[in-house]
Write a structure and sequence with these properties.
The structure is a single chain. By secondary structure, this protein is mostly helical. It has one domain: MFS general substrate transporter like domains (Growth Hormone, Chain: A, Up-down Bundle), CATH 1.20.1250.20. 78% of the residues lie in helices and 0% in strands. The chain is built from 17 helices and no strands. Helix 3 packs antiparallel against helix 16. The N and C termini lie far apart (54 Å). It comes from Secundilactobacillus oryzae JCM 18671. Keywords: Cell membrane, Membrane, Transmembrane, Transmembrane helix, Transport. This is Major facilitator superfamily transporter. GO terms for molecular function: transmembrane transporter activity.
Length: 405
């Protein structure tokens, strides 16, 4: 089938996959080395460095959590493509300026501003959710996820190389350049057949009144928050923990980049297959199995004694990631009408952002008071809570559907 006869949703999937790829690459290119970058801005104790790193990581997601519902409401009125361009162009500017930061508070402020413009990946999901045939939703969301995680795979490796030889500012400049590519790709290659929501009583009511199985959808949103909290909790201390395991010798930035990238390798390999599996056996089974596996992988990280051991477990985390976020996106897609899909996905993004605030801040507090290793115990507890919420929501939904005797 040539490109002229391909459905438009498939063409959009290709363009948005590329946009997700460069967004994931740019974002991950700089994040693993943020603590090391901050350490060059002053003389800080271990607890101060953990605190500032946590604030810098969380600042972006804090502002993102606040503004995401507003952008989602606007997207349902104007379309998702304008929101994609807004996000990509905004991050082009803020990422570049972050590389010019001269002190930690300027860095934190720019990260806060960046969060108000972010949301490219979430809007890519929302656009595809409004166009993809329902029978293809699981595989499509899994494929779209491989763009993001594929970028997250290559980003830290390239960023680690650049940071190790050219300094910690260069990855931020590259991030800005990659987001310019996302802006242009979206502008010229994404076409949206958008019909604005009419201003009637339904458009003013809560979007959750329009969805099927609201208990399950809310569980997916909360699950996304907890998944994000668990997976991002290590970010503020990853390079510092790797430095500790390496006893401060060798190219810590490059090793940190490899460790940060390993989950992306596994997710890239597993996401489409697990998404398609969810289409066949049901998203619930894949999600529950993924959460159980996630908890079993995070707990042993407390005992690692080498970078190699940490790397193996990080790779396994990537497999669990492939069974989590894409599946929650699929469940929301199947239960949400097209005219409110952006608002539902924006709430999901907002809760994910809250998770990205809670996770790093909790981890920074735990690492500052106890030790880096205790972050993994905290993460395991978050996964257990997540599992309880998801299983409880599905049981509640099943009871609601049972006929009354």
């Amino acid at each position: 089938m040539n490109s002229n006869t391909r459905p438009q949703w498939q063409k959009n999937l290709t363009a948005l996959w590329l946009g997700n790829f460069v967004t994931g690459a740019g974002f991950s290119m700089s994040l693993p080395f943020l603590p090391l970058f901050i350490s060059t801005m002053g003389t800080y104790s271990k607890s101060e460095l953990a605190l500032y790193s946590g604030l810098a990581f969380s600042a972006t997601f804090l502002s993102q959590a606040i503004v995401s519902p507003l952008w989602g409401k606007l997207a349902d009125r104007t379309g998702r493509k304008p929101m994609l361009i807004r996000a990509a162009a905004g991050m082009t500017i803020t990422a570049t300026l972050t590389g010019l930061s001269q002190n930690v508070w300027t860095l934190i402020l720019l990260r806060l501003i960046q969060g108000t413009f972010s949301g490219y990946i979430n809007n890519a999901y929302a656009l595809m959710a409004s166009e993809v045939p329902m029978t293809k939703s699981g595989k499509t969301m899994g494929t779209l996820t491989t763009g993001n995680v594929g970028g997250q795979l290559i980003g830290p490796i390239i960023g680690g190389y650049l940071a190790g030889f050219l300094g910690y500012r260069v990855p931020f400049y590259c991030f800005g350049g990659l987001m310019l590519i996302a802006t242009l790709t979206t502008l010229f290659f994404v076409k949206e057949d958008f019909t604005p929501a009419t201003k009637n009583s339904k458009s003013k009511e809560s979007p959750f009144k329009r969805i099927k199985n609201p208990t399950v959808v809310w569980a997916m949103i909360i699950s996304s928050m907890l998944i994000q909290a668990a997976t991002t909790s290590i970010n503020p201390i990853l390079s510092l923990f790797v430095k500790e395991l390496m006893h401060g010798t060798g190219n810590v930035a490059f090793a940190s980049g490899i460790i940060a990238a390993l989950p992306g390798i596994a997710t890239l390999m597993a996401a489409p297959s697990l998404g398609a599996l969810g289409d066949h056996i049901g998203a619930q089974r894949v999600l529950v199995a993924g959460l159980i596996f996630c908890g079993l992988v995070f707990f042993p990280m407390f005992f690692v004694a080498s970078v190699i051991q940490l790397g193996i477990l990080r790779f396994l985390v990537g497999i669990s990631d492939a069974a989590l976020l894409p599946v929650t996106q699929t469940v929301m897609t199947l239960n949400t009408p097209n005219d409110v899909v952006s608002r539902i996905f924006s709430y999901n993004q907002s809760f994910q952002a809250i998770g990205s605030v809670i996770g790093p801040l909790l981890a920074s507090a735990v690492a500052g008071v106890l030790d880096y290793r205790y972050v993994f115990l905290m993460t395991t507890i978050l996964v257990i809570i997540n599992l309880i919420i998801v299983v409880g929501a599905y049981r509640h939904d099943a009871q609601q559907k049972e006929p009354i005797a």
